[in-house]
Amino acid sequence: MSPIDENPQDRLAEHFDEMTGLLYLERQLDAERARAVEAHVAACLSCRELLRALENEAVWLREALVSDDESIPARVLAEPQRGTIGWGWIVAFGLGIGGAYTLWTGVIQPSLTQAAQAGFTQGNILTMLFFTGAFWKGWDTMRSLPEFLAAATLGGVAVWLLRRHWQRFTTIAFVMGALVCMLGLPPSAAAAETKHGDPNYTLAAGEDVKNDLIVLAARARIDGDVDGDLISFSNSLIVNGHVKGDVIAFGQEIIINGPVDGNVRAWGQSLSLNGPITRNVSTWAAQLEVDQKATIGGSLMLLSQSTEIDGQVGGDFLALVADITINGKLGRDASIRGDRLTIGSTGEIDGQTKYVGRRQPEVASGAKLASPIQVTIPRRGPDYTHADYYWHQVLLWGASFLFGLVLLLLAPGLFSDVVHQTKKAGPALGFGVLFFLATPIAIVIACVTIVGIGLGVSALFLYLISMYAAQVFFGSWIGELLLGFSAGVGPAVGRLALGLAVVRALLMIPFAGGWIWWLITAWGMGALILAAYHRMGHANAQPAAA
Amino acid sequence: MDRQKTTGAMSEAELAELLSQVRAGDTDAWGELYRQHAAAIFRFCRRVLPTREDAEDATTEIFMKVKQKLGTYDSSRPFMAWLYKVASNHCWDTLRRRRIRQDLETGDLETLPLEHPDPGQLERLQLESTSKEVRTGLAKLPDRARMALVLRYYADMSYDEIADTLGVRRAFVGVLLLRARHQLREVLAGGASAAEAAAGRGT
Q1: Strands A317-326 and A334-343, how do they pair?
Q2: Domain limit, last residue, from A66, A91, A110
Q3: For residue range B152-191, what is the model confidence (pLDDT) as tens digits?
Q4: Which of A23, A30, A41, A358 is most exposed, with the fewest beta carbons within 10 Å of its own?
Q5: Measured between beta carbons, which residues in chain B are less than 8 angstroms from residue A20?
């Protein structure tokens, strides 16, 4: 602020600045300074004109802001819903609860029972698939469902507490990084030896690792013994030695010749088992070969493209596979879903065999089966004449509704933002199509490199989740179009329920349903990307003039 | 500007009576309160938020908050001041969450021209610009500048209230307002590029 000089001779050179003028007009100057300005203005035409112009500008601004040439939307004029939830929402919520119940009794519980029958008798399927010794041994003590739910709730609360900080990209990167680390590097590493190949790693015959062994290498060869678990992130893994714990392996080619006292969990291009495995095997491999020298004491669960079983499986057999040939022995029940089943002349199944596939199984004359195979050849395409089809659609609706509820309750802000972005059809579809097509390519590229496997798998999970979430966001927007907007969780739940029902009905349209699914998925994914983009601070949106 | 003018013709006594009824749980009174003030709050939101849909959503959400927080309202203070405070906090939080509000507080005075503006030029600008053009220009300003002008010249907030809402020092409010005026003048005078550069710097 310029000093105000009372000397008339200095007045022209000592005009007060614009800031002082504004503060004077806004009555923000202290009394002494205000008097000095008044005295100066009385004698200075230039400053008097400046004050008048600034004052007029304030009036002009007020008039421009208060004047109104835009109608008030009917939605704003209508009083928002009162605290009570209307009958429509109650019905929708009831349907949701019904869907949840049918989902549980119709899908989840039978799956758990089936898994239990297949020898996985550990509490729940999530624990079985992900946590039992696979990533962290501590989960062994948390197998029960209530404990798992408690952990999930705790995670939800943490996410809620962090939701404001999630706006920062760095925080997201940190959380994602921590997640990847949690998945990829077991905390039990404190009691493990970690070996980095240069680029290859070999545990020589005669050497003995007393703890768990974690190997990261291009090629890993284990000729010695491992007293704990063997965890490998290697392009190629050959195990000739004795592993007393579990073998957990990610890689392109995994060959296990030596004995394994624990379980084998493997994700890779090909898995070849040539030795005795005391407990269970679960795998996700394009090709699986169980050699005739191999014996599996427990169950074998697999997701594969091509499988040949020449050895013995002591427990249950659960397979989702395109092409499977059985020349070995399956000691208990077998449940197979696939494209082609061949049982050779040396094949033997001592329990009951269920097969669901497109072709009739081929069974050689010498094969020994305890009971005839129960064969189901599903019809291609939906059977609109059968009530089961519609029941299944209700279950699918229930599942998506539940998923939407969780999203809505855990991240209402994000949910609202994504639904809002769904309204921008062009950008959402554009980004969605790009993301839909480009992400799988990026995931494949990430998985090709050893270092990128963890990232690739995480990205794949996120991609699949976002695909599923897309229809939830789209459905919620459809619900908003139909029911109109009103704030609060109750109306949002109702919109979600109705919108998802509409989406489900659209997906049931013969022939067009697949294309509609594609369109909805791309649209919803695009909206998710746009919302995330805005939250990360890259938005450059400017407010529209009123 | 008298804040009451934005809300219709309700006297202070009537408003006080209405508020006491709302607090007592009278849903009809709540409906009346909403109808009296919704348009003003929508316009406020429209001035500061990016889209009409944003303003609609925000209006609804603001009134939900008002309903929840009405118990904390000090009836010795003007209701409109409190209402605009709730609205401005909500809108500012919305902008903050979207991270489209990043204009820097630093670089205060040095970014302001020290010479007198030409009063004649200022008056010509005021004569030549319609209200709609002013609002269009306002939309091109950085969020904080736009917010400051709306809080001061639409919601009639004091410097203390503006400082509290925007999280700046009270002494900075005048600078913020003057800088916003300069940016608006530049936009309206055709210097959009300069203002956009300022916006780009800020966002």
Answers
A1: parallel
A2: A66
A3: 998 889 999 999 888 888 888 998 899 999 888 888 887 5
A4: A30
A5: none
Nearest-neighbour CA in chain B from A97: distance (Å): 27
* Closest chain A residue by Cα to residue B64: A487
User: Do A396 and A435 share a structural domain?
Assistant: yes
A311/A275 Cα distance (integer angstroms): 9
Which part of chain B is CATH 1.10.1740.10? 3-98
Chain A residue nearest residue B55, CA to CA: A76
The tokens of A91 are what? 């019905």
Out of 3.90.1530.10, 1.10.340.30, 1.10.10.10, 3.90.1150.10, the CATH code matching B109-202 is: 1.10.10.10
**Mean pLDDT for all residues in chain B:** 78
Residues A275 and A408 in one domain: no
- A287 burial class (0-12, 13-18, 19+ CB within 10 angstroms)? middle
- Name the residue with higher pLDDT: A1 or A196: A196
Tokens of B138: 């306002």
Q: What single letter denotes the amino acid at residue B197?
A: A
Asked whether the beta carbons of A76 and B56 are under 8 A apart, the reply is: yes
For residue B19, give both structure tokens: 């508020």
Instruction: Evaluate whether residue A492 is within a structural domain.
Output: yes
CB B44 within 8 A of CB B147: no
Distance to chain B for A283, nearest Cα, Å: 43
> Closest partner residue to A542 among B50, B113, B114, by Cβ?
B50
Please tell me whether residues A193 and A60 are part of one structural domain.
no
What class is the B3-98 domain?
Answer: mainly alpha
**Domain check: are A279 and A341 in the same one?**
yes
Give me the long-range contacts of A181-190 (CB less than 8 A, separation at least 24).
A182/A135, A182/A136, A183/A135, A183/A454, A183/A457, A183/A458, A184/A233, A184/A454, A185/A214, A186/A135, A186/A136, A186/A137, A186/A212, A186/A214, A186/A231, A187/A136, A187/A138, A188/A136, A188/A137, A188/A138, A188/A212, A188/A229, A189/A214
Identify the CA nearest to A34 among candidates A47, A46, A49, A23: A23
ipTM score assigned to the predicted complex: 0.80
Higher pLDDT, B113 or A453: A453
* Cis ω before A199 (30° cut-off from 0): yes
Residue range(s) in chain B whose domain bears CATH number 1.10.10.10: 109-202
**Is A457 within 8 Å of A183 (Cβ atoms)?**
yes
The alpha carbons of chain A give a radius of gyration, in whole angstroms, of: 33
Quote the pTM value: 0.41
In this structure, how many other beta carbons lie within 10 angstroms of the beta carbon of residue B111? 14
* Structure tokens that stand for A352 in this block: 């009951």
Distance CA A488, CA A490 (A): 6
Alpha carbon distance B168, A148 (integer Å): 45
Instruction: Flag the least confident range among A390-394, A414-418, B195-199.
Output: B195-199
B106/B123 Cα distance (integer angstroms): 30
Per-residue DSSP letter, B72: G
pLDDT computed for residue A147 by the predictor: 43
Residue A116 lies in a domain: no
Identify the pLDDT of residue A409.
80
- The predicted-structure confidence for B78-94, as pLDDT tens digits, reads as follows 888 899 999 999 998 88
Interchain pair A56, B134: CB under 8 A: no
How many CB atoms lie under 10 A from the CB of residue B14? 12
